[in-house]
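User: For documentation purposes, I need each entry recorded in a consistent format: the amino acid sequence on its own, followed directly by the corresponding structure tokens. There are two entries in this batch. Please keep commentary to a minimum and don't merge the entries.

Assistant: Recorded as requested. Entry 1:
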Amino acid sequence: MRPTSQHRWLTLAFLLMTLAVLVTLSRPARLSAQAGRPATAAVRVRLQGAGRQIPNDFLGFSYEAPVLTRNVFNPQNRELIRLLHQLGGGTLRFGGNSVEFTGWSRSGEARMAGERAVVTPADLNRLFAFSAEAGWPVILGLNLGQDNPTLFADEAAYAVRRGGQHLLALEIGNEPDLFMHNGLRPRNWGYADFRREWEAYARAIRARAPQAPISGPATCCAAGWRWFPRFVADERSKVVFATYHIYPMSAAPNVPESSPHYASIANMLSPELMRRVAQKVQKLVGVAKSQGLLLRIAETNSASHGGKNGVSNVFAAALWGADYSFTLAEQGAAGLNFHGGFACRGYTAICRSGGHYVAQPLYYGMLLFHAAMPGRMVPVRVRASGNFAAHAVLNDNGNLSLVLINKDAHQPIVARISGLGSYARAAVLRLVAPSLRARTGITFAGHAMNAAGNWKPGAGQMIYRHGRTFQVSLPAASALLARFEK
């Protein structure tokens, strides 16, 4: 049957509708392709502005005090020692909330109610033998919560005698500004009470060991922020350096998702979080410096309350950890100690799994930081259309290490680098993983840390100057170290 004009009209309408549907369906694909185009970043290095030397022991680990009673930190633990050696020099700090429930006894017998662990001379002997083998000195926390200066001055005296040069400092108490909230002191206990008790410990320690190195105040929070300037002004002659604790986020169950302190990957990698940290550390460093003291952030990590699975123990934490370490160094901090344990959850950088000590994602961020050393921080100006950070270190041999971090989950970035004087080439070492949420498959310079704690970097990709600039690309959720040579 010959089609009528009505049939032809219906056929045409159907074809037009089909075409409209196909166009609509094609739009997401085109938008997705556009979203995947690289963002750009202009990175300008100011070589003339090289500042303070980064201490060789800038990096560090922090542990709860009862771990001293376990057979972990002993000189036969070659895997753990190799993992420390891969990070160069550093410090080991033992304290945490549990130090206030950790006793000391020459005989090993419990002496106080509520003790969860008792440190003995054998434990300190083992610790300082490990410290000597690893080359990482110790910050040893003392129990202030029980207010027993005589007992813990005895522990301090033993540590000074046994530790020698491997004892970096004694720390009296942990976060005393929270004692009023955790039942260790009455609600009306304040700075004057803390200072009186702290000084009683200091006098008892120095009576037994006159040259004992002491640090403080080891505060953390709202009250501690107010106490810190008072403490460094009052006790500057009694401490070898000042300490403070920072956790930019909280994994506590009562923190709402709308809070910038809520433990999420988005918050952890946000530029706003890093700006808050930088401002806080800058103020603390300034206060300490005004009294002739260096500042160490002696306990820190991504989120308090042990961190959060899926946030603190994934590849995003590696990118955060590198950015965080460089940010603290830029603000003048003398070092940091990432808190953790040996269970493979939460925020620890090294855990125990399958009979081995295993590098967790955060460890790779520390490895990237160390690979840029030694040297002095150099100012870097960044203009970027993505979530991007850059840090530079002028090495002791005159070469330059430039670290670029792309914290965006989906957007690659092309960085154009200028201000590099006569540098003509660079070797690029990349830190990559399958995604921000990856726990495995992480490599730096082409290799992962093996089960024995060994890592050997590859040679890297060479890039060369084109005119006045270098250009390098970063995939989404990745970082790189460019080592510039003349």
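Entry 2:
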Amino acid sequence: MSRKFGYDRGQPIDRYYIERFLDANADLITGRVLEIGDNAYTRRFGGPRVTRTDVLNIDPGHPRTTIVGDLATADHIPSDEFDCLIITQTLHLIYDLPAAVGTLHRILGPGGTLLTTFPGISPLSDDRWADSWYWALTPLSAVRLFGDVFGPDNVAVAAHGNVLTSVAFLEGLAARELRREELDVDDPQFPMLITVTAVKPRRA
């Protein structure tokens, strides 16, 4: 139906789950917030709770970009800088994934929260990101990856979607072409989208 994740038919199914996740955690989007690509989700879900918004891109020249860098090698970003990080559909594009998670932990302030998402069951990109689509994680690998850095008690991992939404997403259908009761069933055997909430512990 579509080779563009359903964008040409409406809202992609994975974006339905991403926005459901951010809406459920909107109270954590507060203070100084860093987002990848643009700050649309920061503004939409953080609203007046956000005091400053920053945007990170790997290449310069993108509108609203305040920081240019690669999360795997971002030593120029100060430590303990942000209250919330919104990292959607990005980490699977970074080859040195453990280094990127280490950076996210380092730049997050004590008590701050990382909200991140990445594909589970998904087509691969055929656009500019095709040459850097390195990883497909599972909920179990996410638990290990983030738990090793943030501590297992500070990480919550969830799988979203089911066999129907996974097939529909692979075919390129849009979220509007499924019923709400079909979208809102989460079957852990078919993790179409994986979300992680990780909190950096406060210092003793």
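Summary note for entry 2:
The chain has six helices and seven strands.
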